[in-house]
Amino acid sequence: MKKTDVLVIGGSAAGIVAATTGKSFYPDKDFMVIRKEKQVLVPCGIPYVFGTLENSEQNVIPDAVLENAGVTLAIDEVVEIDRENKVCKTALGDEVGFEKLIFATGSTPADVNWLEGNDLENVFTIPKDKEYLDDVKARLEECKNVVVIGGGFIGVEVADELGKLGKNVTLIELLPHILSMAFDDELAVKAEEILHSRGIHLKTGQGVKEILGDQKVRGVLLNNGEKIKTDAVILSTGYRPNTELAKKSGVKLNEMGFIKVNEYMRTENFDIFAIGDCAEKFSFLTRTLKGVMLASTSCAEARIAGMNLYKLSTVRSFGGTIAIFCTAIGDTAFGAAGVTEKLAKERGFEIVSGVFEGIDQHPGSLPDTQKQFVKLIVSKDSNVILGGEVIGGKSVGELVNLIGIIIQNRMTVTDVLTSQIGTHPLLTAPPTSYPLVKAAEMAAKKLRTNF
Q1: CA dist 94 to 3, 84, 102, 413, Å?
Q2: Could you give all domains of the chain from N- to C-terminal order, each with its CATH number?
Q3: Phi and psi, residue 286, nearest 5°
Q4: Quick one: which of 127, 259, 290, 440 is 20 to 30 A from 199 by CA?
Q5: Structural element, H or E, at residue 400
């Protein structure tokens, strides 16, 4: 029987970070990662395999990340776990003993059996499976018309990538706007306008009744009776936690199907942890259960689990997901952190918002200068910033991370207004009208006037 001190099941982003962080904090311990995939993809890079990247090989996470950290990698699949004796069995017939176990089993595309026609030829999902996605990419090369069902981040990004290749793409979203789980309407509408300008046909506020075809897909029937001709359908209707192994092993799940964990990412079993898409999430602000699945959140949980494997620290704990999102459509980036204005009101917060639009370089005559729009959501009673949304150029990615740090540290409008921010003409917005600070200023003005 093989033995290791720490066994990580799953080798995507969360599994890698948990193992390498753990090895850094506990260098005398042996770490092993077991994953069933020969190669793993960068999760957030998957949509770009269909256009921007030449092939999926350019989106592979190198195994050297684990090897260089001193972590053992085994390509196999754990099929059974004996929690009492701390032994797991694999598909290849091996037994592996462990002291500590980390579930990092990720997620899989949501079940679409409710949708008639989902089993037709050329109906695809977007799993984190390199071989499957290579086949999808090859088949799509023969297709001219493509329907993407689901207007979340992956659906939008895949639709835009296929549109860049000259495909006739229709994106269907049941809710009134795309990306509406992350952005308020004014930002979602802007994203829709950009997609439309790039040749993507949008059908929002519309559900799909049936996928049409005999053996091969030939169309999509909407709930309103409209039929859309297509050569392929991509289902991007969400993901579910991959927790069958945990459930079979007697590890407790919550009502949403995620593995129950505490703030140290530990399950009810003292020596078993869970991280990433398979692990329970709750909101940083409202403490409500969430179904958020983000690589950034997964890696934060993985670092916390890795640090707390053998020695807990109250300052190394997970306070809940802030849900930091970002994406890009063409040259325009969108980012959000915390709650939207709509969600804040639904949750019962009394809030004001501060909005400012400036530029991301100075002077504005510099080449490639873009507008930068910032919206902050602020609690009336405490002046604490609860959320933020940004539109602009590539700097949006780091700016929304900054807003996430502001939220996590429960900073107030005054904290932002008194912060020292470095600037440079080619790299940042002007110090005289830094959009993040100006948005805070607009919120402060409303707070002073009891708006």
Answers
A1: 11, 18, 18, 57
A2: 2-108+240-307 (3.50.50.60), 123-237 (3.50.50.60), 325-448 (3.50.50.60)
A3: -105, -10
A4: 127
A5: helix 396-408
